Amino acid sequence: MLTETSLCMGCMNDKTYDGPCKLCGYSDDDPFIPTYLEPKTLLSDRYIVGRLLSYNGEGATYIGYDKAAGTKVTIKEFMPDTLCSRKKGETEIVVNSKNSPLYKTYLSEFEDLNRTLMKLHGMTHIQAVLDVFLENNTCYAVFEFINGISLKTFLANSTGGLTWDQVKELFPPIFTTLSLAHQAGIIHRGISPQTIFVTDKMELKLTNFCISAARTTNTEIACEIFNGYAAPEQYADDRMNGTWTDVYGIAAVLYRVLTGTAPKESTSAAIVDMPEPMLVNRNVPTNVSKVIMHGMVSSPEQRTRSINDFVSRLFTPPKYSPAKSSAGSEGASPERVSPRVQKRLKKQEKERRKAIIVLAIAGVVLITFAIVFAIAMNGGFAPKPNEESSTTSTTTSTSSSKSTTTTTTTSTEPESSEPTSSEPLVIERILVPDFTDRKYQQTLEQYAGMFTFVPDFVYSDTHKRGYMYEQDIDEGEMLPRGSEIKVKVSNGPSAVPLPSYENIKGTKYAETLTELGIQFEIEEDYDWDVPEGYVIECNKDIGDIIDVKGGEKVIVYVSLGDD
Questions:
Q1: Which residues contact residue 107 at a Cβ distance below 8 angstroms, ignoring those fewer than 6 apart?
Q2: H or E segment at 479?
Q3: Do residues 118 and 132 touch, judged by C-beta distance below 8 A?
Q4: pLDDT band of 296, cuts 50, 70, 90
Q5: pLDDT at residue 356 in the model
Q6: What are the residue ranges of helices labelled H in 427-554?
Q7: 532 Cβ partners below 8 Å, 6+ apart?
Q8: How distant is the alpha carbon of residue 419 from its chain centre?
Q9: Which is it for the CA torsion 152, 153, 154, 155, positive or negative?
Q10: In whole angstroms, how large is the CA radius of gyration of the chain?
Q11: d(Cα 449, Cα 461) in Å, to the nearest integer?
Q12: So what's the pLDDT on residue 210?
């Protein structure tokens, strides 16, 4: 069913004039592929479908508009064109009779995947699933709309790559998010610069999760493979996909952003001769380079198996033992130590040998010092009796001769100020950014392991709920990793008007109240005039002022449908 609207179907902004949109150039006269939904199609009496954004073997993705929330969304429709079809002008999908069992299996997998993702709504670095519903003999998943561009476009528009310091700033939240998704049993299988988005706030979001069949070759639906980022097992028939498959993908992405060069296809013979990142870009740390290459090993059994293990190795520099670095020892071999470290170790070994020689001739040295000191005394350089010497003196009294001998020992600075410890202490310092006007929970996840935030939650009429607006450490300061930063976080206004609940599902209204900080209880009741699951009324009128700070509670009555 089509709906009348003044929205542009290309960008979902208001357009009250005829002709192409002045913002995106889309026109209602633009042709569309009849296999997919026609723009202005209304789904679930709530979502307006706009232009087609992309499609793959799993289905189609459209820009959309949520009438209830008044926001842009992204709508994904399950429609594997090898198993089903749609006639022009119709919304219902027709499944080929011989493919019906397989279609139902994949449809169920699509629904389960997106309902699981929907439960992970707190993970802000995954494109959030807002709704999942069945209609038109298929399933739809509604996602948040991301204001941003793909990492692929971002790199193309910038210098072509990122520094390791920039990667350390941007990627940790993605690592954490991916690890949590794996714990929930979700494997992405399509991590690439095309499926990672850079938002307008310079944050990364992982998008475009698909069912396994859409990301593995030789299945009954068309496969979407990102060459250079897909693991070898995705080209094989054994279906041995797992967490290690995503390790390959994220390692390949890091290879691309750090070197500015796309990795070779994993099934190509060229992958064997692909140079390490540090050989392409000498500014890539040696350890980082080797961890990335180990994440791209062809054999799943020999590859780093989990994201947690990959991240742990990525951010933990190897420890070298100079005492065991010589040939034939059990320590790290010279081939695995950077040239700079090898040079330092050789220097320390040379100094130790020199110290042994010095100790062997200590007697001769002491006699020499005594002679030099006597000459210095005869030359008039001796300190006055009451004058404190700047050097350290040791006085030895001999009772038999009643004489006093003073020996002056002068310490000499070593040739190098480098510590001679086999494991020098290195304190990593991190640049403090401006945290104001950022979401607290999102920032907490993004900077996990970098800073320890100490929040002070304050009710504020001028700052949005959940956003930080003050920090005790100024932007631009350099702090050791793990340092505490005190921040003020807004609890939102202490009192807010009750929002409208007309034609809104109880679950959605509960989310709205939660965002405003309003405490509530859900009570179900039968109502002839209100559809099941929708709000009937509240114990407060729309617009009534609710005392959020005082904990005033709202009772929300939700319809059970007809009695």
A1: 78, 138, 139
A2: strand 478-480
A3: yes
A4: very high
A5: 54
A6: 440-446, 506-516
A7: 559, 560, 561
A8: 35
A9: positive
A10: 34
A11: 32
A12: 95
Strand-pair category, 451-458 with 483-490: parallel
- Which residue is listed with tokens 């006085």? 395
In degrees, rounded to 5, the angle at the alpha carbon of residue 488 between the alpha carbons of residues 486 and 492 is 160
CA distance 516 to 495: 9
Which pLDDT score is estimated for 403? 36
Query: And the tokens for 519?
Result: 């405490």
- Residues 188/206, Cβ–Cβ less than 8 Å: yes
Alpha carbon 263 to chain centroid distance? Answer: 21
Check pLDDT > 60 for residue 525: yes
C-beta separation of 140 from 193 below 8 A:
no
Strand ranges (E), 56-128: 59-66, 71-78, 84-85, 94-95
Q: Is the pTM of this model over 0.90?
A: no
Q: Is the pLDDT of residue 395 over 70?
A: no
In this prediction, residue 381 carries a pLDDT of: 47
With tokens 């006269």, the residue in question is: 29
3-class SS of residue 250: helix
CA atoms within 13 A on the CB side of 223: 17
pLDDT per position as a tens digit, 140-178 = 999 999 999 999 999 988 878 999 999 999 999 999 899
* Beta bridge pairs of residue 139: 134
Position 321 scores a pLDDT of 44
